[in-house]
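Propose amino acids for all 333 sites.
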């Protein structure tokens, strides 16, 4: 209040921030910066118009003065507001938030249980990516492989994932060391008695997965969630040789698992609502958008992806130019 009165009584200068230019680069330099920003925006989101419109508005303010910039902003905003992109982005915004409301699971008043330790079976591309996502959110991880060579390769992949973040400036060396210290390697099931969630990420082989889930039932505590990262196999088939069908669930990540934001939580008719609520909570904690889907061929994403690929291949069979199909897909986004 005193500050405002001092300005009003002319004891303090009234600085109209709209007209401040002390932080602006000379015009030539500003244009170079904006040119670089445009190139970055096109690289990041080739099909989006609004980042470029924002840059145009800023340029107008620098070149023709602040009032001209504001007029351009008001007009540009109105036209963007009624674009299809705007409607779609609103849809994405609300639908991402709607994913956490699942009838028959989140409306029963259940609280997520505390997951303190996670085990991951398989240190390949997928397993190491899931492990990276977990340790980045401070979950201690037990990584199991079949032999020393594969285990070391898996840990090396996790290191490479983290080092890439350090190189990009997204992570400090100290944070890197701390994250890496959360990973423990294992060749057997001895330490599985203390884990709350297991995610199996081995090759797509039904017999192998059935054997693994039979072993997990033996070695894991009775409350432990048994999850599979399968993208195509029926979960009922995977859990066929167990008595724990109520805690078997799909946790389908997308490659690279520590980067891609989506997580499909696959529930069967036997999966308990508590397990779904627990996994939704883990999904949010590791900064993913979890969606709960049914146990059917391809779940949600691959189910949409199959016809898309089939259509492209059908056109190839009809003799259409492959590059033309590719351009049409790319142009569509």
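Proposal:
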């Amino acid at each position: 209040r005193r500050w405002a009165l001092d300005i009003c009584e002319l004891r303090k200068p009234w600085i109209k921030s709209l007209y401040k230019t002390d932080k602006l680069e000379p015009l030539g330099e500003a244009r170079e910066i904006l040119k670089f920003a445009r190139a970055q925006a096109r690289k990041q989101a080739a099909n989006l118009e609004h980042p470029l419109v924002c840059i145009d508005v800023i340029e107008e303010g620098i070149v023709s003065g602040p009032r001209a910039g504001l007029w351009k902003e008001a007009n540009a905003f109105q036209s963007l507001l009624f674009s299809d992109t705007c409607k779609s982005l609103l849809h994405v915004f609300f639908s991402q938030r709607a994913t956490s409301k699942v009838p028959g699971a989140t409306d029963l008043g259940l609280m997520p249980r505390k997951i303190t330790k996670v085990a991951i079976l398989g240190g390949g591309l997928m397993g190491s990516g899931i492990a990276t996502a977990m340790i980045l959110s401070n979950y201690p991880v037990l990584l199991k492989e079949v032999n020393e060579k594969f285990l070391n390769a898996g840990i090396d992949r996790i290191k490479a994932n983290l080092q890439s973040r350090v190189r990009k400036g997204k992570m400090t060396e100290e944070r890197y060391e701390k994250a890496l210290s959360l990973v423990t390697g294992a060749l057997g099931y001895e330490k599985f008695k203390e884990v709350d969630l297991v995610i199996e990420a081995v090759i797509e082989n039904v017999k192998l997965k059935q054997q693994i889930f039979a072993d997990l039932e033996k070695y894991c505590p009775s409350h432990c969630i048994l999850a599979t990262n399968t993208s195509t196999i029926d979960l009922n088939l995977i859990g066929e040789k167990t008595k724990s069908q109520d805690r078997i669930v799909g946790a389908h990540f997308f490659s690279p698992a520590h980067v891609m934001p989506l997580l499909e939580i696959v529930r069967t008719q036997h999966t308990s609502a508590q397990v779904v609520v627990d996994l939704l909570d883990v999904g949010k904690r590791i900064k993913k958008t979890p969606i709960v889907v049914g146990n059917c061929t391809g779940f949600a994403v691959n189910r949409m992806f199959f016809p898309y690929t089939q259509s492209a291949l059908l056109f190839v069979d009809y003799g259409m130019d492959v590059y033309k199909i590719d351009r049409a897909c790319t142009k569509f986004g």
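The radius of gyration is 26 Å. The chain has a mean pLDDT of 95.
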